[in-house]
Amino acid sequence: MPSDKALLLTAMGAYLALTIGVGLWYSRRSARSAEAYFLGERGLGPWVAAMSAEASDMSGWLLMGLPGVAYFAGAGEAAWTAIGLALGTFACWSLVARRLRAHSIVAGNAFTLPAFFSARFHDDRRLLSTIAAGMLLFFFSIYVGAQFVTFGKLFGYVLGMEGFYARMVVFGALFVLAYTFIGGFLAETMSDFIQGTLMFCALVLVLSVGTAKAGGVGALLAELGAIPRFTDLFGVATPLDAAGAVVTAAAGNAQALVGGVPAFGPGVGYGFLAILSCLAWGLGYFGMPQVLLRFMAIEKPAMVARARAIAVTWCVVSLLAAVGIGLIGRALMPARLLTASAAETIFIHLAVDFFPPLLAGLVLSGIVAASISSADSYMLIASSSLANDLVPNFRAEPLSDRSILGLARGTQVAVTAFGILVALSGNDSIFRVVSYAWAGLGAAFGPLVLFSLFWRRTTLAGAVAGMLTGGIAVVAWKNLLAPLGGAFAVYELLPAFLLSSLAIAVVSRLTPAPPAEVTDAFDEARTFPG
Question: Which domains are assigned to the chain?
Answer without folding.
Answer: 3-430 (1.20.1730.10)
